[in-house]
């Protein structure tokens, strides 16, 4: 019975996605993404700072793919819907990395605010933007000096102006702060976090010229109340950037609402477990123990215990206690594509500014 429900859900989602692909004609030559683990397609792992092991990737890639899920991420589904290949991580140097259709600077653990000595990732938002600007300079330099020799591997010169820029970051700024700061302190820090975000976005928007087509998709997340306040201010920021760069289309997508709806009404969307982790240790209600991360074996009370993956991750929203399952990511992507959660309303010319809540 459970399995049947899951398949039904998958089928319905597939038909929703298909109908939108038919009605919305995305036509971006390239996509550049900035963010954290929500959209990291292998950057942190490529950096050598962290490894991920089985059962990550068990559902789709059949091996760990550098993604913090059992399968594809929201960004993978969106790329697919735009008929573009999965984004290569900026730091992935092996396997003739192909950046023709864009590049992914997102790195798990990244914050908007500059990294500190205890940060998981040194690649905070400002660093990712700097990486992008260097990437762009290198592409222009290589095109100029080597002609078309590297066409297969690097974006076309004019694709920077026509590309879709996505931002999916902020969760770690808020979630991390909950360990060390009071609620009021966290709320008070939001304007500073957004100032840093604004500086980075403006930095990217700056190179856009009259005929530029800069599109912005940004994502942020955190504990509910702080996230809502953050998102309110992010919404205002999207209007501000839009006002300052009229040649740019900035759209804000309310992923918070998509996820709250998914968690509240999970059974309607074919899920059976709204909060329990598929891959974890400890059993119900959360199956999460921070001492035993997904895929690892640790000694607890003198016994070896392993956090293993569940047998059917399509029943679960939560993959490893922190990140979403592929099934949940697919649901969120399908809801983004309905355009119902966007301001201004979604159209084929309209990219989006994403905000995430976890
Ligand atoms: C922005 O959106 C408007 C309205 O959909 C469209 O006409 C215009 O071409 C878009 N501009 C860019 C730069 O994408
Ligand atoms: C759950 O679904 C009901 C019925 O569609 C809807 O009214 C409600 O807003 C949903 N919950 C959330 C949190 O979105
Ligand atoms: C846990 O497993 C390791 C590796 O198999 C083994 O060396 C160790 O003795 C085990 N420890 C306990 C407490 O069972």
Automatic annotation (TrEMBL):
The keyword ATP-binding does not apply. Belongs to the 'GDSL' lipolytic enzyme family. Keywords: Glycoprotein, Hydrolase, Signal. It comes from the Eukaryota. Coiled coil: none annotated. This is Uncharacterized protein. The keyword rRNA processing does not apply. Residues 1-23 form the signal peptide. GO terms for molecular function: hydrolase activity, acting on ester bonds.
């Amino acid at each position: 019975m459970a399995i049947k429900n899951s398949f039904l859900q998958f089928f319905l989602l597939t038909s929703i996605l298909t109908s939108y692909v038919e009605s919305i004609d995305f036509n971006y030559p390239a996509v550049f993404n900035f963010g954290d683990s929500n959209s990291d397609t292998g950057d942190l792992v490529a950096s050598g700072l962290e490894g991920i092991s089985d059962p990550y990737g068990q559902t789709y890639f059949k091996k760990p793919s550098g993604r913090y899920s059992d399968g594809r991420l929201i960004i993978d589904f969106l790329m697919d819907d735009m008929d573009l290949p999965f984004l290569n991580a900026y730091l992935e140097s092996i396997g003739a990395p192909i950046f023709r259709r864009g590049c992914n600077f997102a790195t798990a653990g990244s914050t908007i605010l500059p990294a500190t000595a205890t940060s998981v990732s040194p690649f905070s938002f400002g660093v990712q933007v700097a990486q992008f600007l260097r990437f762009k300079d290198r592409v222009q330099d290589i095109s100029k000096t080597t002609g078309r020799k590297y066409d297969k591997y690097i974006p076309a010169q004019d694709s920077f102006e026509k590309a879709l820029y996505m931002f999916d970051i902020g969760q770690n700024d808020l979630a991390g702060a909950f360990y060390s700061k009071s609620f009021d302190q966290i709320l008070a820090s939001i304007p500073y976090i957004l100032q840093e975000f604004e500086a980075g976005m403006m930095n990217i928007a700056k190179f856009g010229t009259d005929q530029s087509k800069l599109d912005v998709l940004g994502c942020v997340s955190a504990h509910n109340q702080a996230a809502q306040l953050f998102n309110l201010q992010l919404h205002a920021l999207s209007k501000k950037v839009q006002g300052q760069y009229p040649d740019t289309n900035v759209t804000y997508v309310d992923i918070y609402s998509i996820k709250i709806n998914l968690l509240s009404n999970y059974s309607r969307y074919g899920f059976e477990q709204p909060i329990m982790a598929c891959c974890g240790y400890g059993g119900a209600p959360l199956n999460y123990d921070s001492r035993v991360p997904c895929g690892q074996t640790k000694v607890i009370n003198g016994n070896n215990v392993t956090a293993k993956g569940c047998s059917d991750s399509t029943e679960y929203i939560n993959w490893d206690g922190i990140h979403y399952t592929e099934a949940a990511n697919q649901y969120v992507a399908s809801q983004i594509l309905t355009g119902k959660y966007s301001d201004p309303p979604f159209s084929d010319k309209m990219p989006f500014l994403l905000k995430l809540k976890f």
